Each structure stands twice: as structure tokens, then as C-alpha cells.
Amino acid sequence: MAKKKALHLGDGHGPGPHSYEWISGTLRSIVGGDMDSEHIADVAGLDMGTLGKYDLIINYMGGWTPEKAPKKALAAILSYVLNGGGMLGVHCGVVAPTKGCSEINHMFSARFTGHPAMRDITFKAAEGAGAHPIMEGFKPFTVFEEPYTFRMDEMGEVTLLMEFEHEGKAVPGGWVNAFGLGKVAYLVPGHDKGVFEDPGFAAVLRRAAQWAAGIIS
Questions:
Q1: What's the average pLDDT block by block, 10 residues per block, for the chain (217 residues)?
Q2: Considering only CA atoms, which of 101, 182, 188 is closest in space to residue 152?
Q3: Model-level pTM?
Q4: 8 Å CB contact between 152 and 170
Q5: Can you tell me the distance from the alpha carbon of 169 to that of 152, in angstroms, rounded to the nearest whole number?
Q6: Residue 48 CB: number of other CB atoms within 10 A?
């Protein structure tokens, strides 16, 4: 059977937060046993013809804006997922303004609202998440990370996978949802290379990619 193919979206150069270039080797090694990977930093030219070659989009593109993703390219990405493509958002891949690229918020059933200062965060399984295939063998892990917060879409059919504690409350740390015929997964961790090198995060990231690409179900 031919290996699945993943398209990585991500920008940023050199070592530093949210730099795809810095985390690319580690990210590819995590998913590389299951699928071949290609990367683009400029999404403006994407269309359905191009996206149709892939089984999964791994989205590490930070700060979605109309300049980065003109309407035609954004529509192609949304159509790809709506028609059955897989989408895995990692960390900054969910960040989009309320105007211009707000469709990203609808696809992930959440809107990023900000984050306090970085700190050690322990990600634990959300209640009832153990039955989901992504969570098989999951063990809590602690990483130095940005505690992203969200306004979840009340209309979205979200299954929480992970959560962490912030100001005495449980905050979503990862989830899955449907978007049309497509599978969508999102994971909060991923600020820099060190997070991807954590074995606990690497395990859940790999299984999330497998699930969104249709390798496990």
C-alpha cells in the first residue's frame, strides 16, 4: 500500500518560537514513518488541484491573515477539508483574526483568545477521552509552553482529548471535530523545538496525524 502524503504549512526561519524551519526536522521524524511529507511556506497559490494530492494538511502556519492566505487559497483549504481531507492544527496553526481569515476559526470550532506568560504546563487526558484512538497509550506530560485560551464554538461537535489547568479551571489542550466530510484535530503544544522533542507530546502528535489522515480510526 502506498504511503500517505502530508502537506506541511508553516513559516518562520532560524531558531525561535513558531519557526517551522526550526521544528521541521523533528516534526517530520514524528510523522515520517507513516507518510511522506512536503512543506510550503507560501500558501497563496494553493488550489484544489494541488491539495487533492495529499491525505493530510499539518498546519503550523502562524497568524493567518488575508495577506498570507488570499480568499482563493483559503477557500481551497476549506473545500479540501469539507470534502474529506484531513487537517491537523498544531499550536499557532489555529491563530486567525476575527476578520479576513475567520473561516479558520470555524474549521477548528474555536477562536484563539490569547495566552498568559509561558510556564510549565501539564497536559492530561480530558474526561472520557480515553476511548478515542488518538489517546491510546496516552500518558500525561509536562512541557514549558504558552497556555493558549479559546472561545469554543457552541455549534461545533468537539470531542476534547487533552486539557490543562489555568487559574483553577480546566482549559482545552487538544480536540477533534468534524468539518463537513473531513477530520480535524488540534493540539495546543508546539511553541518551539523542545516541545516537539518531548516523548509524551510526540506520541499524541503522531497518533493525531494518523487519525486525521485515516491511518487509524
A1: 92 90 95 93 94 97 90 96 98 88 94 94 96 97 96 88 94 96 98 96 98 96
A2: 188
A3: 0.96
A4: no
A5: 15
A6: 13
